[in-house]
Amino acid sequence: MQKKNLKEIYEAEGVNNCISKITPQSKSSSISKEDSKIMYQALDFEKASDIGNDSCIIHKTNFGTVEEVKRLLKKGTKPSYVKLVSDLCKNDDAFELIKKANWFHNGEEIAGKEDRYAYVDRDNCYIYTDANRDFLLERAIRIIIDAKQEEELENYYYVYTSKEDNINEMKTQMLREQKGAGLADEDVETVHYWIYSPGNNAYKWDDFYKRGVMGLGWCEIGDYSKYSSKEEMKAAMQEKIDPNKSHKNAAYATWQFLMDMKPGDIVFVKKGMHTVIAKGVVTSDYIYDTQDEEYPNIREVNWTHVGERVHPGQAVMKTLTDITPYTEYVSKLNALYEDELDEDVDELEPIEYPPYSPEKFLEEVYMSSDDYDTLVELIRIKKNVILQGAPGVGKTYAAKRLAYSMMGCKDQNRVMLVQFHQSYTYEDFVEGFRPASSGDGFEIKKGAFYKFCKRAADDIDNEYFFIIDEINRGNLSKIFGELFMLVENDKRGNALRLLYSGDDFYVPKNVYIIGMMNTADRSLAMLDYALRRRFAFFDMKPGFESDGFRKYRLELDNNKFNRLIDCIEALNNAIESDDSLGEGFCIGHSYFCEINAISDKILSNIVEYEIIPLLKEYWYDETIKVKDWSEKLRSSIK
After folding, report:
1. pTM for the complete prediction?
2. What angle do CA 484, 486, 491 make, to 5 degrees?
3. Which end of the chain has less Cβ packing within 10 Å, N or C?
């Protein structure tokens, strides 16, 4: 299929041909991944997705907050689509266009029916309505084109999907994408690892292996996608299975199977508590298939490794468990099948990571382009850089984004973030003796930096970034040990023998270390001079004068906010000229970021509970200064 501009197709060939260009003719067939990508690209959307085939439009809007939606929706009722649209988005031009389009089909007012659904998450409202796809698509095309002419579609994404189970799959994707925004991971998919039992003592395994699936029981509650929460699943289990049990673990397993598991996740199959019998890769979304009456809730799996292995220790008793956070445990399970060639996995499509550019970095991090270029150059030459500055200048916020901008994509496998503290040791960082998992004596376990460097050494063509938050909170001489020399840029690739294991170890040339250091904490000791000369130090300053923050202020367009920022800039000048403080104590811009809607309460909370307590710490023996600046800050937002 040739990629074309949707507006051009519409104007030249009309709605029907436009529809035929981006959707299959058969109602029963699904939109292919390639067709879906072309549809998104034609509409200038941010990303493509392989979704279903029929009858639904999902609309995402930033206009409705959770509180507003909860106020409008009564538990257990299905709201009027028109009322929800009207109440949440009264000033939204795109919705006005939708309402003016008069959604009628076969004499029936689609938008006025009461059997509409709404889905609420933490930040947004997702609204969808069942109707004939071609009819809604025709309206959507016209609305999209009209709205794009008026540049009103920046916050909108229209997606076509089939039925309620596919909608729940879309919910899963939406929820998973809302993680880690502060660390630049909001659109990064992480592979999860699961351990799973196919029935009691794995009695369903042979059947599941032949069919290439995994399944969960609790068939009495039917299609999992009918339920909108774990609580609903639990209530259904109490009603239909056993009212005397809590069903807490069962409901959690079924909910994770529906909402949290995704294609690409790794599943280990257990038999009892002491045997692992297979490993596979999830290849499908949730499916409700009644051909197996006992286990109708399934997902398709590519079983890449089959064979009994002794489980390391005792496995959990639950049917399905997400073991992703337990990295040591996952490593041991993976090691069980390392001796087998994994040809099927090697043939899987390579992962396409979300792109990330220097331009995107400068949009999100309030830093000048010259400072960014200088910082990148320092990292490339020195290989070890510490971002230092006062609280609120965006050190942690910038760290992962900096790594991603240098890599050109958001590949989490090439970035690791740790945080030093007073109990962090060489044993945590490099290697050390730890109690054996068998409970018999001790064994040498490798630390975070050791494992990261070994992974980077196996992929020398790509850059790897090890990020250390609060680097000056740890005992650095104790943590780094003999690595003091190995981290130097001109010593990379040279090996030393490690203290415990006697292994030869080196830091690869493709590993970059980014540390973050708070310059305003008087309780912290200065960095060891031996380590200091091996790092470059980059001052992170408040970004109030950056182009990004100025644009942010213009978008908020609030006089009180502007007066408060002006007052903060004057305060920073006073802090900088104070002999007891200085530039390293200036107040950063992060206190005032990510405010979607300005209110007196929000500004007052920032002043009273964040800025003024900080001033009391800075000028703990100068109460007159604290009182004077507190009044100035309060006056600025009156």
Report:
1. 0.63
2. 125
3. C
